[in-house]
């Protein structure tokens, strides 16, 4: 203010990267030339248009309070360290029947990646096991015994007992943090040894994870191939509840149960998390980037991601949405780099090796294999909301995937030559069988693939 001789009113709660119409504003008061100079310096410092991105990840709503911490201190520290704003859905506080797992992270790319990794590290880790009928029930009845007190202090875990009246059994729950996984597993195994004695080898460990029903199709994979591979690699049993079953309460439809040995259960949990969808969104000034549809199609094929580009003429920007899965988040960042900053060095990403599934095939390549026709002009607008009939008059609507209709994004296909129209129609018919395994997606931006086609005409 002293250098520009202006008065600047800075809002008390400025959330960088937010896209709400209620965004706070910075007010600058002074002479016209001084205000202009101050504005340029503020915009240069914030640089919200070109460098900032918004990421959406899936984190179980039951874990949100643990990640946020008492009084929000834990998540505030993460935001300070990464320079990001991390948002948890407010609707979870007031809606007892429906919960959202979606967590948004806004900031510069390097900070967003650091924040994503920290959120995963802060996720609570909970192992459960049933006490056998002949086990040490007397020990279970006294959760303040000296042994359990000592174990909780030494391994930094919380041990709880839950009586299951209908099953006439006792469930032992061991809770710790992901970043201390080795200590949590050791504590759980010691408890099993202590409380189950001779039956130790027969005790199975359970873990419950929350995966939103709209993401089940992505995590399960085509014909449940991803799930089958995880179970085979980990020798575990994984149960997904049927979201369409009216007898299952809404909140329980996201429950996924993993059963097996303690090390294999954790291994399966990690591979499921690595299969969760993840979205990166960002805007770029329209005069700073050239969009090439052939390049976009090539990136989707090579990096196994989905890319959507929309032109926003009122804001003079291109809006990018890149979708993939968490174990391949480096491919999402690489797609962004290739599209808007090919000369920048690649972002270094550290993904836990446990996220990766041995011999896992591509996820999105089998979903979209849309051809690029050289005879058609290139356009930066990849999707349009206008529904039109294709020349020579046949309606393309029946051939479009049901998820495209759900999203209300239908390709604009006009003025196609007869040969091109025929080839396009044949291709759409051939691709329909690839979409059956996706199921019906919700309107969540995390789970909604969009067909990358050009605007013709």
Described by its quaternary structure, the protein is single chain
What count of domains describes the coordinates? 4
Query: Which sequence of SSEs, written as H and E, runs from N to C?
Result: EEHEHHEHEHEHHEEHEHHEEHEHEEHHH
Low-confidence stretches: 16-22, 366-416, 431-457
**Alpha carbon gap, first and last residue:** 51 Å
Structural write-up:
The chain contains 15 helices and 14 strands. With 457 residues, the protein is an alpha+beta fold. A six-stranded antiparallel sheet has the order 4-5-3-12-14-13, covered by helices on one side. Strands 7-8-6-9-11-10 form a six-stranded antiparallel sheet, covered by helices on one side. Mean pLDDT is 77; it is low at 16-22, 366-416 and 431-457.
Set down the secondary structure blueprint.
Elements lengths: L6 E3 L17 E3 L2 H15 L5 E7 L5 H5 L4 H10 L2 E3 L3 H4 L7 E7 H14 L1 E8 L5 H4 L5 H10 L2 E7 L4 E9 L3 H16 L8 E6 L5 H5 L4 H10 L2 E4 L14 E6 L1 H13 L2 E9 L7 H11 L2 E7 L4 E9 L3 H12 L61 H6 L10 H14 L26
Antiparallel strand pairs: 1-2, 3-5, 3-12, 4-5, 6-8, 6-9, 7-8, 9-11, 10-11, 12-14, 13-14
Helix pairs in contact: 3-5, 7-8, 10-11, 12-13
Q: Can I get a quick summary?
A:
This protein is α+β, with helices and mostly antiparallel strands. It has helices spanning 32-46, 64-68, 73-82, 91-94, 109-122, 137-140, 146-155, 181-196, 216-220, 225-234, 262-274, 293-303, 329-340, 402-407, 418-431; strands at 7-9, 27-29, 52-58, 85-87, 102-108, 124-131, 158-164, 169-177, 205-210, 237-240, 255-260, 277-285, 306-312, 317-325.
């Amino acid at each position: 203010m002293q250098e520009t001789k202006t008065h600047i009113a800075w809002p008390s709660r400025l959330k960088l990267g937010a896209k709400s119409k209620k965004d706070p504003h910075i007010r600058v008061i002074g002479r016209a030339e001084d205000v202009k100079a101050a504005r340029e310096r503020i915009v240069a410092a914030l640089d919200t248009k070109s460098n900032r991105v918004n990421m959406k990840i899936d984190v179980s709503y039951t874990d949100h309070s643990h990640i946020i911490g008492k009084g929000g201190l834990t998540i505030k520290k993460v935001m300070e360290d990464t320079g990001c704003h991390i948002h948890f859905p407010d609707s979870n506080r007031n809606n007892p029947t429906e919960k959202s797992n979606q967590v948004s992270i806004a900031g510069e790319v390097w900070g967003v990646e650091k924040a994503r990794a920290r959120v995963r590290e802060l996720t609570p880790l909970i192992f459960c096991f049933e006490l056998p009928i002949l086990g040490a029930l007397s020990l279970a009845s006294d959760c303040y015994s000296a042994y359990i007190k000592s174990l909780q202090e030494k391994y930094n875990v919380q041990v709880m007992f839950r009586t299951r009246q209908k099953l006439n059994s006792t469930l032992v729950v061991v809770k710790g943090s992901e970043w201390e996984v080795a200590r949590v597993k050791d504590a759980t195994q010691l408890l099993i040894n202590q409380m189950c004695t001779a039956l130790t080898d027969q005790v199975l460990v359970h873990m419950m994870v929350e995966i939103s029903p709209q993401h089940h199709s992505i995590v399960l994979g085509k014909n449940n191939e991803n799930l089958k591979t995880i179970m085979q690699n980990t020798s575990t049993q994984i149960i997904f509840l049927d979201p369409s079953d009216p007898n299952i309460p809404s909140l329980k439809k996201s429950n996924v149960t993993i059963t097996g040995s303690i090390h294999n259960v954790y291994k399966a949990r990690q591979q499921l998390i690595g299969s969760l969808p993840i979205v990166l969104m960002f805007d770029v000034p329209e005069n700073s980037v050239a969009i090439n549809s052939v390049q976009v199609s090539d990136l989707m094929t090579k990096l196994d991601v989905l890319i959507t580009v929309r032109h926003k003429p009122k804001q003079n920007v291109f809006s990018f949405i890149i979708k993939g899965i968490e174990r391949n988040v480096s491919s999402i960042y690489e797609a962004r780099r290739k599209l808007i900053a090919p000369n920048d060095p690649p972002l270094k990403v550290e993904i836990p090796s446990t996220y990766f599934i041995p011999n896992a095939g591509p996820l999105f390549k089998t979903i979209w294999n849309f051809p690029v026709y050289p005879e058609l002009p290139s356009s930066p607008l990849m999707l349009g909301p206008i529904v039109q009939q294709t020349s020579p008059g046949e309606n393309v609507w029946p051939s479009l995937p049901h998820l495209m209709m759900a999203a209300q994004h239908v390709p604009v296909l006009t003025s196609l030559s007869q040969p091109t129209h025929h080839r396009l129609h044949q291709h759409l018919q051939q691709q329909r069988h690839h979409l059956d395994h996706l199921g019906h997606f919700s309107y969540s931006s995390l789970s909604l693939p969009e067909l990358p086609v050009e605007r013709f005409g």
